[in-house]
Structure formats: structure tokens, C-alpha cells
Amino acid sequence: MRAYPHPNIDDVAVEHVLHALSDPIRLDIVHHLVREGEASCATLDGGRPKSSMSHHFRVLRSSGLVHTRIAGVQHMNTLRREELDRRFPGLLDAVLNAKSQG
Amino acid sequence: MRAYPHPNIDDVAVEHVLHALSDPIRLDIVHHLVREGEASCATLDGGRPKSSMSHHFRVLRSSGLVHTRIAGVQHMNTLRREELDRRFPGLLDAVLNAKSQG
DNA sequence: GCTATTGTTCGAGTATATTCGAACTATCGA
DNA sequence: TCGATAGTTCGAATATACTCGAACAATAGC
After folding, report:
1. Structure-derived torsion over alpha carbons of residues B50, B54, B55, B56, reported in degrees to the nearest 10
2. Helix (H, G, I), strand (E, B) or coil at A19
3. Strand pairing class (A39-40; B66-71)
4. Over its length of 102 residues, how does chain B's per-residue pLDDT go in tens digits?
5. Chain D, protein-covered positions (CB within 7 A)
6. C1' nearest to CA of B4: which nucleotide?
7. I need a labelling partner for B91 at 20 to 30 A (CA). Which of A41, A99, B28, B98 fits?
């Protein structure tokens, strides 16, 4: 594996971003990345099978939410925050600030 | 039919709102409601079958996005804007302001 | 080169969504 | 009451998503 494809942020549709964020596991990953910054896939798996997580990271990448950098044997993920804030002002903040029922 | 059930806004999870908005047809409906205010189902169907639209309105209602009022033979829909803005500050605005790729 | 580690890809199984015709319900007006 | 209108509900077909084991690829360290 020799580096991931990442979409240009201007090519991602808001529907795809919303869909990516509508899954609880992926929303968890995003929250985690906000708190901790860069993190490997293993750090973010929450005990789930690697193949499942690989699927979720792919969705997060293809929707422009996450950037994955290969560092040796680990794949390090970051939120594409500045780009997303430019492309969809206020969206990420609003989602991240949404409290669970209450 | 004697009035629809609408969830309490505090009981809706952000994941459900995001999922509801991630469908292009439903996002269209929401945009339409923002521009035009209250509208009947027929006004919003875009030529699609009524049974399909009925499904989408149900999703929009169950996620707390839309309120449906029965007025004679028509079912009039409105966005639950103030409630949503209180529950998820900035979310609806951010989604509505998202420009399609450009 | 061998081995352990990290993560991908493939394929199949299951679950959830979407679509839409057909039959139905409710209301309005004549 | 009859007919037209606006939507719902049901059921089935199809599509899309999620889950996860098994096999694979790439790197690091010895």
C-alpha cells in the first residue's frame, strides 16, 4: 500500500458527509480525533474487528472527513478540519457540539 | 388519519437527523420548506410516486425535522426550525448553506 | 530471510433503506 | 351519497450498508 487517495474537498457533496457522520461508530471516531488529534486505526477501533474498521475509515476518507497518512506500519488519521470548515462552514462544529439526548 | 406523532425534539439523536438529511430527495424537501415555508406533500413530490414520498416524509418526521399538520385533505409540512436550532445550534444553517460542489 | 505488527481486500451473510404499484382511508364539494 | 382529491399502508423487489473471518501486503526489527 503506497498512500491513500483523498478526494478534493470541493468534490465532496454535503450528502456524503452527512451520511458518513450518521453512523455512531464513525461519529465516535471523529469525536476521538477532535480530542486527541492524530491517531492510528488501532487506537480508534474500540475493540472491533479490523476489517470492520477498515470499512469505516474508507467511508470517512471518501467523504473528505479524514486524512490518512502511512507511517511505517501504522496508518495515522487526522480530521480535515480547516478544509471542511472552509467547504462547509459551521457544519463540523454543529455536529460535534450536538449533545446526546438531554 | 387523525394527526401524526412527532417526537419530542430532545429525544432525537443527531445521527438520525444526519441520516435524514443525507438523502438528496429529503434534503431537497428541506430546502424547499426553507424557501417556501409551509407546503403540502403534493407540492413537494417532484413528480415522484406518492408512496415513495410518504416514506420520505415519515423519515423527516421521525427525525424531528418536519412537522405535519392535517388541513382537510392536505397534509401541510413545516420545518421545526426553532426547535432544531435550540437542540442542534448551527446544524441546520450549516447544512442549508452548503453549496453543491463549487 | 524470518517473524510480529498493522491494516487492507475479498467474499458472504445479514440488516437496513429505497422504490413503487395496488388497495385503502379520510375529507371535501356537488 | 357519489366522485374526486390527497396521502397512507402493505408487500415485494431491489439496492445499499454493515459486519466479520480468512487470506493477503507492507513495514520494522532482529
Report:
1. 100
2. helix
3. unpaired
4. 678 999 999 999 999 999 999 999 999 999 999 999 999 999 999 999 999 999 999 999 999 999 999 999 999 999 999 999 999 999 999 999 997 765
5. 4-11, 17-23, 25-28
6. D8
7. A41
A16 near B CB under 8 A:
yes
In the block, cell 478534493 appears at A8
What DSSP string runs through A26-86? HHHHHHHHHHH-SEETGGG-TT--HHHHHHHHHHHHHTTSEEEEEETTEEEEEE-HHHHHH
Considering the domain delimited by B9-97, tell me its CATH architecture. Orthogonal Bundle (1.10)
Name the nucleotide nearest B74; use CA and C1'. Answer: D6
ipTM of the complex model: 0.95
* Residue A76 near residue A69 (C-beta atoms within 8 A): yes
Spell out which residues of chain B touch residue A65, defining contact as CB-CB under 8 Å. none
